[in-house]
Design brief:
Elements lengths: L1 E3 L2 H13 L4 E6 L5 H13 L2 E6 L19 H11 L3 E3 L3 H4 L18 H4 L3 H16 L3 E5 L3 H14 L4 E5 L19 H6 L2 H14 L5 H15 L2 E9 L12 E10 L2 E10 L1
Parallel strand pairs: 1-4, 2-3, 2-5, 3-4, 5-6
Antiparallel strand pairs: 7-8, 8-9
Helix pairs in contact: 6-7, 9-10
């Protein structure tokens, strides 16, 4: 596996692949890789001739008081995992390579970026959209893969790609879970031993809500309220629990068939997100 740290090196390598007619897949990450990330790399390898992975802890998607400085950085271990998983190129840029000091341009997907996690983390999705837009311009992939655990992020990126006419196919890959049902996340490392035992109840609440909908339980607001109570009683501080239309994350109506249930809650000091998506 080749490693580059500059945009010029990245583009030189990709230009050679392009001239040889290679199809390129891209997996953007913030590092501290787990089995979910490696599944993305594996799926990318099935869909393209060359797989590019980026590791960049993006400062613009962290708000004031969030964990940018303490976000886990495990670059040596990550490189070993990526080489084993079959990545062809690792792009590992410093902040100075990604952002000029007087950068003035922000990419914002209006509306979607202010919902749910966007309401709790103002500016977060502007940071996500901006850095992904920049990475797409740098890598120029044919296909890019994202985990479905961050469902709102996926919808934001798909909308950006559609609106800005990026020639990139966006593929969502199913969430990888622990045996307990807990969605794998870099932030799970913040949980205490006792909190690890409680954390799977977030996914349990989502499954209970999904099953209630599939058995005809109405209205959705009642299901949401019951789930919020369940989470509080389990020891969480719920942020939101919402039954949505999966295409645009608007509040689901009775006639909608393709749904996603989004949830976010704090457990101790750790903010967890998860979702289930399904058709009824």
């Amino acid at each position: 596996m080749q490693k580059v740290t500059s945009v010029s090196e990245l583009r030189d390598t990709i230009a050679k692949w392009r001239s040889a007619g290679k199809h390129i897949a891209f997996v953007p990450t913030m590092g501290n890789l787990h089995a979910g990330h490696l599944q993305l790399v594996g799926e990318a390898g099935k869909k393209a001739d060359r797989v590019v992975v980026s590791i960049f802890v993006n400062p613009t998607q962290f708000g004031v008081g969030e964990d940018f400085e303490t976000y886990p950085r495990t670059e040596c271990e990550d490189q070993e995992k990526l080489a084993t998983a079959g990545a062809d190129l690792l792009f590992l840029p410093p902040v100075s390579e990604m952002y000029v000091p007087d950068a003035k341009t922000i990419v914002s997907v209006v509306g979607l970026s202010e919902l749910y996690c966007g309401a709790s983390r103002p500016g977060h999705f502007n940071g996500v959209a901006t850095v992904v837009c920049k990475l797409f311009n740098m890598v120029q992939p044919d296909i890019a893969l994202f985990g479905l655990k961050d469902f709102q992020q996926l919808v934001v990126i798909r909308t950006m790609v559609r609106d800005l006419d990026f020639p990139v196919e966006i593929v969502g890959v199913d969430t990888v879970r622990e045996a307990s049902g807990l969605a794998m996340s870099s932030r799970n490392g913040y949980l205490s031993v006792e909190e690890i035992k409680v954390a799977p109840k977030l996914y349990e609440s989502l499954c209970m809500a999904r099953d209630a909908i599939l058995t005809g339980d109405r209205p959705y607001a009642d299901i949401e309220n019951r789930a919020m109570l369940f989470l509080r009683e389990a020891g969480f501080q719920p942020d939101y629990f919402a039954v949505c239309r999966s295409t645009d994350l608007s509040k689901a109506q009775i006639e909608d068939r393709d749904l996603v249930i989004l949830a976010a809650a704090k457990l101790g000091r750790t903010r967890l997100i998860d979702n289930v998506y399904f058709s009824r």
